[in-house]
Amino acid sequence: MVKIATWNVNSIKARLPRVIEWLKEFQPDVALLQETKSVDETFPALEIGDLGYNVEISGQKTYNGVAILSKLPIDVELTALPGDDTDEQARYIEALVTTPSGGVVRVGSIYLPNGNPTRDDNDKDSEKFRYKLSWMDRLIAHTKDLLKTEDAFVLGGDYNICVNDGDVYNPAGFVDDALCRPESRGRFRQLMNLGLTNALRSFHSNPGLYSYWDYQRGAWSKDNGLLIDHLLLSPQAADTLLNAGIDKTPRGKEKPSDHTPVWCELDL
Prior knowledge:
Elements: E1 2-8, H1 16-26, E2 30-34, H2 45-49, E3 54-58, E4 66-70, E5 74-78, E6 92-98, E7 104-111, H3 127-149, E8 153-158, H4 182-192, E9 197-198, E10 212-213, H5 219-222, E11 225-226, E12 229-233, H6 235-238, E13 241-246, E14 262-266
Parallel strand pairs: 1-2, 7-8
Antiparallel strand pairs: 1-14, 2-4, 3-4, 5-6, 6-7, 8-12, 9-12, 10-11, 13-14
Helix pairs in contact: 3-4
C-alpha cells in the first residue's frame, strides 16, 4: 500500500514545525507540497530528509514553489509544466516513484494559478485569469500525453478550483471568483472527462467537505471553507484505490497553513 497526500503549506519555512509534526504523525509515503515559497537552496531538505524522505523541489523565491517528498525511491521527470518555455512560475513537478512491491506510480505536484481578480479595469478578463485558463489548457494537453503511456499516475495539488457549488460555503459570493467561474470549472471538467478519477469523491460525495479555510473572519471556526485541493488518478491508479480523505488536524494547530492535506491510499 502507498499513501499519497497533497498539501499547500503556504510557506515551508513558516510552516516547518507543522510539516515535520504532520510527517511524523501521518506518515505519508509520498507528500506533494505546494506554495513552498522557497528557492531550492533554502528549502529545509535536511530537516525533512532526517525523517527518511527523499526531497525533490521546483522552487521560486517568495512565491509559488512545489515539491515532492517520498520515502520511496524517486526519479524526477519534469520540473515545469510543458507547453510554454517562457513561463517562469514554479508550479509543477513530476516524478516516478518505485513502490515497495516493485511497481511504479507517476506523481505530479500541481499549484494551479489562482486567477483573481478575474476582471481588469475595462471589465474584461484579466491577465491573471487568462494565465490560469492557458495553464489549465497546458495541463489538459500534458495529461493527454500521460494517458498515452498507460502509467498509473496521480496528479495532486492545489487546483484552485471549486468543482461545483457544494465545494464552497457561499456559492453566491463566489460567482465571479476565478475558483468558480464557468471557464475554470469547464476546463476542470475537460480534464476529468479524459478519464481521471477524483480520489476523495470516490468515497465522499457529500457537499461541505473543505480543504481550505481563509485566515480572516473566523472562517475556520465557522467552517466557511472551500474544497480546492484534489488528487486526480489515471485509470490504472484508480483501479488500485483503497481509500481517500481529508486530514483536518493540521489546520487546527497553532500557526497553520490555510490549507489542510488531502490523501489517498493505493494498492501498488
